[in-house]
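Backbone-to-sequence.
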């Protein structure tokens, strides 16, 4: 009876220290590193396709049946380049984040908080840039038509990343406090 109680207390202490949770997180981070690498490659290829689309719109007037469509395609492709370059940068930051979680002892370190802040700021600037760039490009390239795609998804993701950034800041503060206490 006493031996079982000691074993249960030992497993409870082991569970409370978070070693198993940290190992699980590091295992998931190993897979996330590979997923981030694939994402970076796909985003870079998508960005190259959009750059080629913009080039074709200006080089080949017959790229679309109606020349007005060329301007709409150019506006859309230029906005996609802004979005894809932001996505590429966030993917690189995310890759570094999961890499540090995979290799480090705790995910709650100041460098990871800075990465989360950078991702949030990049997404926020992308939202603002798209809201400003789309009407300006429409006014310059195609005053006859007004294409405006409100990037609500980027705004929502920015808010979610902001919440995660606050969680990481709080976790880092708790980790620092715990390390100082011990």
């Amino acid at each position: 009876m006493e031996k079982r109680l000691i074993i249960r207390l030992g497993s409870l202490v082991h569970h409370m220290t978070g070693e198993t949770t940290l190992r699980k997180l590091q295992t998931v981070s190993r897979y996330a590193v590979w997923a981030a690498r694939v994402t970076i490659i796909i985003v870079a290829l998508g960005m190259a396709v959009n750059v080629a689309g913009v080039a074709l719109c200006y080089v080949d007037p017959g790229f679309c049946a109606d020349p007005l469509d060329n301007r709409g395609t150019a506006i859309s492709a230029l906005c996609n380049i802004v979005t894809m370059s932001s996505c590429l940068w966030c993917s690189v930051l995310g890759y570094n984040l999961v890499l540090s979680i995979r290799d480090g002892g705790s995910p709650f370190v100041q460098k990871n908080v800075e990465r989360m802040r950078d991702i949030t700021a990049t997404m926020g600037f992308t939202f603002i840039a798209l809201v400003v760039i789309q009407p300006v490009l429409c006014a310059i390239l195609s005053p006859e038509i007004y294409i405006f795609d409100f990037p609500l998804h980027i705004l929502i993701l920015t808010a979610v990343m902001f919440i995660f950034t606050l969680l990481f800041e709080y976790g880092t503060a708790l980790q620092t406090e715990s390390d100082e206490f011990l």
